[in-house]
Structure formats: C-alpha cells, structure tokens
Please model this.
Amino acid sequence: MNLTKKEQSLLKDLQNEEKICAEKYHKAAEAACDPALKQMFARLEKAEQNHYDTVTGMLAGETPTLKPGQSQNAKKAQPESQRAQVSRAEKKSDAYLLADVLATEKFVSGVYNTAVFEFSDPAARSALTAIQQQEQQHGKEIADYMTANGLYC
Ligand SMILES: [Fe+2]
Ligand SMILES: [Fe+2]
Model:
C-alpha cells in the first residue's frame, strides 16, 4: 500500500494517539478502585494496543485486514459494580478516570473519522472505519458503566 504524505501524517497522529490511549488505560487500570473497572480498563488497554499495531503496520505499508463490525472486544463490560462497599472518595476517583477516558475516546473517534475521509485505498478506509466503530463501542462501555454506577452526568 502506497501512502501519500497526508495519509502518512494522519497515520503518525493516530499512532501517537493510540500509544497515549494504551498508556492511559494502563494507568487507569492501576488507579481504579472498583475491581470490575480495573478489568474493563485492562481489556481496553489491549484493544488500544491492537489499534496501535494495526496503524503501525499501515505506516510500514502493510494492507490492513480489519473489517467493519469485526470487533476485537467481543466480551461486553460488566456495568454493575461488584463492590460491596464504596467509599465516596473511591467513587469520585473512579468517576474522574472514567470522564477522562470517555473524553479521549470521543476525541480519537473524531480523528479516525477525518482520516477515513482522506484515504483512498478501500482496505485502509475499511480498517480505519472498523477502528472508529471500536472507539465508539469503548465509549458506550464506559458510559454504560457510569450510568449503572450513578456516575454519568
Ligand atoms: Fe484505539
Ligand atoms: Fe478506544
């Protein structure tokens, strides 16, 4: 796959964003108080790492194989908190982590949307669309958890 300068530049931006996403979820998994939330963040870290690998492959000229609807995270998040007792401070701390990653997902989804419009190769467009759908799904999982735990506002 041959890339234009513009396509290369967009992929480099996405590569950087995915690196930050994976690191952010890694830190969030360490910091989360709710064990169920820790699990969700750890799973999302893996998904972001997959995105990073796909984008890195595209930058190296590989033709991506990801197709829309081919989710790499088949397992759904468990929205109900498994905590028996939740301190106010813990809940506030988790709420901050959730709001931060939700904002990041929204931003990254927008960057993918822009990239889809700029690419001409059908396989590249499909792969970028598939990743964008996964980012939207991440946002849904985060929002569902927030709603189930009375943290969405
Ligand atoms: Fe991602
Ligand atoms: Fe994501």
